[in-house]
Amino acid sequence: MQKSLAKNIFYKVILNIFNLILPIIVGSYAYRTLGDTSIGKVQFSESIYNFFFIFAVFGIYQYGLREMSRIRDDKEKVSQFFTSMLSISIITSIVSLIGLLVFAYFGYSDNDIYPILILYGTNLFFNIFYVEWVNEANEDYDFITIKTVIIRLIYVVFLFLLIKGSDDYFQYALLLILSTFLNNIVSFIYVKRRIKLNFKAITIKEHLKPLIIVVIFSNANILFTQLDRFMLGETINTAAVSYYVLAQNMMGIINALIISVIQVTIPRLSYFSGNDDDESYIALLKNISRVYFAFLFPASIGMLVVSDITVIIYGGRSFEPAGIVLAVFAIYMISLGTESILSNQIIYVKKKENILVRLIFICGILNVGFNFLLLYLDIFSPATAIFTTAIANYLLVLLEYYYIRKHLKVKYTLFSFGNVKYLLYSLIFLPITYVIRLLDLNTFVLFVVLIVVNIGAYALILFFTKDEVYLLISRKLKEKLLRKTH
Which of 103, 150, 379, 433 has minimal CB crowding within 10 Å? Predict the structure, then answer.
């Protein structure tokens, strides 16, 4: 039986709001306490670890989510598929762990980040228990939300107890690892109680090809932002990595909240597509896209106009150089969100990953070329790195959209006025911000005034234009209020 999509979105949004508020509080404390160099060591180590993590997860999350969504009503198939994915995860996690340990020993044994790399290695083993894709396929967003909130709160308590200065970066990394393990093991126990393992009927070979394809397309950041972070650490310093990652994390916080709409609808879209219900698929795709763009564009432009003061409030004056980096990330976020719709909700759901891999590879190689060109011109920096990455990602969006319209024949118009109008509305933030900045306000007050006034202006535009998304949200809120009063 299908669960309420509105309820799923509610839980997912609640979870991401929590994930929005918590990193703002905790992240700010970590950045200010550890400083740019120390936290940069952890983040550079994480960048190296991520290359091995890609093989450890092996695309199981994305592939498992899609395939489990299609067979979730058949208990026997679910048991067989889950056991097969678990078996593959055990193999890839152990191989990745060995690979990281060898790489760390020969490449960084005499470096300060060596102990952190070894610590991150344990996370590769813990990946065996990462089965959240099963809960998402079954649309158990209530469990995911409650579990995550509790574990994150435990993490926060220990963070404030243990992290007191710039020398505590190892303890900081340890807390990150332990919170991940706790999150994984709780989900594994929950899933294991509902799905029986059946090693007699496992199938591995038939899943390898689609998994390899998913590994490539779902980890495109290895040729994009992950490459940027690694090259910054190798060619500049860990402080440069911290500026890049701070801006990326700030963008990620906002993007994760907005992208809830897309993540929650993937199982339902896969279900419609798998049952050849094209009419329902297109209707849901168009409606969700409209809602998504109504939030994506103002969030991106809003982040752009407050980028310089946001990094100071969040990380302190030492992170002021990250302001321009966040501004570029705000522009990049538009391409990231748009690409997520095209790749995850259309191309991947339609099982055309092989085409997606080619397009990502082309644009990824282009980004690699951009980075080496920046190094050759001696202008490689956190800001220029993400700028060229944004260019490559916008090209990817255009190529994906061309393929969807020309070859898949999906009746979806990305650049319709119904979608683009929210970008036009959001541009009002630019003159508003310019006028407000003429006032003599301190940093925090200026930040609050800019946020409140710009949000208010955007809401008024939606109100006076009688926007569909605005009316939809208003109607939903009124219905909830009426139910509570009765």
Answer: 379
Q: CA-CA distance, 332 to 304, in Å (whole number)?
A: 10
The pLDDT of residue 97 is above 90 = yes
Looking at residue 199, what DSSP letter applies?
G
So where are the chain's domains? 1-218, 220-486
Task: Kindly state the percentage of the chain with pLDDT values over 90.
Answer: 48
Unique residue bearing structure tokens 């090209």: 395
| pLDDT value for 1 | 43
Q: Give a three-class secondary structure readout of 139-150.
A: CCHHHHHHHHHH
DSSP conformation class of 404 = I
Sorted by sequence, the CB contacts under 8 Å of residue 181 that are 6+ apart come out as 122, 123, 126, 129
Give the pLDDT score at 482.
Answer: 62
- Please list, in sequence order, all residues whose beta carbon lies within 8 angstroms of the beta carbon of residue 346, skipping any fewer than 6 positions away: 285, 404, 408, 410, 412
Q: Which residue has the tokens 């991940």?
A: 180
Q: Supply the DSSP symbol for 111.
A: S
- Which residues touch 187 (CB under 8 Å, ≥6 apart)? 129, 130, 131, 132, 134, 135, 144, 147
pLDDT of residue 225: 87
**DSSP characters for 277-324?**
-HHHHHHHHHHHHHHHHHHHHHHHHHHHHTHHHHHHHHH-GGGTTHHH
Burial of 139 (0-12, 13-18, 19+ CB in 10 A): buried
Tens digits of per-residue pLDDT, 138-178? 878 788 888 988 998 899 999 999 999 989 999 999 999 99
Tokens of 358: 């080619």
* DSSP string computed for 373-398: HHHHTT---HHHHHHHHHHHHHHHHH
Return the number of other C-beta atoms located less than 10 Å from residue 385's C-beta. 27
Q: Taking CA 291 as the corner, what is the angle to CA 285 and CA 292, rounded to the nearest 5 degrees?
A: 85
How confident is the model at residue 38, as a pLDDT? 92
Q: Is the pLDDT of residue 346 over 70?
A: yes
pLDDT level of residue 260 (50, 70, 90 thresholds)? low
User: Cβ–Cβ contacts within 10 Å for residue 198, how many?
Assistant: 15
Compute the half-sphere exposure of residue 420: CA atoms within 13 Å on the CB side of its CA. Answer: 5
